[in-house]
Amino acid sequence: MLKKYTIQLFATIILVMMTPSVNAVNWSKFTTPTNTKPYTIGKTNNGCISGAKALPLEGDGYLVVHLERGRHYGHPLLIQTLQQLGIQAQQQQIGIFQIGDLGQARGGSLPFGHRSHQSGLDADVWFNLKPESYTNLNKQRSNLQQPSMLTRNKKGLNSLWTDQHRQLLKLAANIPEVDRIFVNPRIKQDLCKTVTGNRQWLQKIRPWYHHDDHFHIRLHCPQSSPDCIKQAPLPAGESCNASLAWWFVKHPPTVAKKTKPKKRYMPSACKPLLTN
Ligand SMILES: [Zn+2]
């Protein structure tokens, strides 16, 4: 009996030693999701996702771009949200939006482009609503011109910005699974000035660096994922006053502060995804 346990113990130790450290892994090498229940683990900037689903590369009202990156995976709720947004955009004749990065097949840190997008809850939606305008549309839909909505001096929005963009943001913000949406502070400023009627959805629209050619959708932690770490709740109200003005006084909204990424330790719950 004792011998059996000793063998089992050694086998476990060897398995643990052979499994790469969860922090040293190149998560982009996993090109297929795990065949397990959908489960978000950790934070959007330090996490992973089990049982992710792939977003179909085109659908009603949308087109996925940068196919070569293999970043069209997310929690099924994210996939549903984007598909629902596409259907609503089509019904309202908003145009066809392009979807950039979601996350990798098992989430985890990305070798370039984002610190978040790790736990299957983030997606970038481009503001260009006319895919037919691309003169360089190729098979992979890569290296496309991604037009900015800002004027040259970055102090306002240009003629590409239309009511359709406002409508699209409103549709996205009104999807209950959506926790927050990041846009350039000038876009938030435009919404604060122009939106009439029910303005409650403005609370979810958060000003952030860049985001002048796309907006970033982030979902709430799914209820079925207790290991998902929630973000701080949004401040109450529309955030159209002092907190927005701050961006124009101290921080040029197109230049992100360069901070060194903190050393992070991935949740140990991500470990089974390395061998599954
Ligand atoms: Zn993003």
Keywords:
276 residues, Muramoyl-pentapeptide Carboxypeptidase, domain 2, 4-stranded mixed sheet, 3-stranded mixed sheet, 5 helices, binds zinc ion
Please bin the fraction of helical residues: 10-25%
Residue-averaged pLDDT: 89
C-alpha Rg (nearest Å): 21 Å
Q: Kindly report the CATH topology.
A: Muramoyl-pentapeptide Carboxypeptidase, domain 2
Uncertain runs are 12-19
Number of domains: 1
Biggest sheet, in brief? 4 strands, mixed
User: Order of strands across the biggest sheet?
Assistant: 8-11-9-10
CATH class: Alpha Beta
- Categorize the overall geometry: globular
Span between termini? 30 Å
Order of helices and strands: HEEEEEEHEEHEHEEH
Strand content: 15-25%
Bound molecules: zinc ion
Number of helices: 5
- Strands, total number: 11
Structural class, by secondary structure, is alpha+beta
Report the CATH architecture. 2-Layer Sandwich
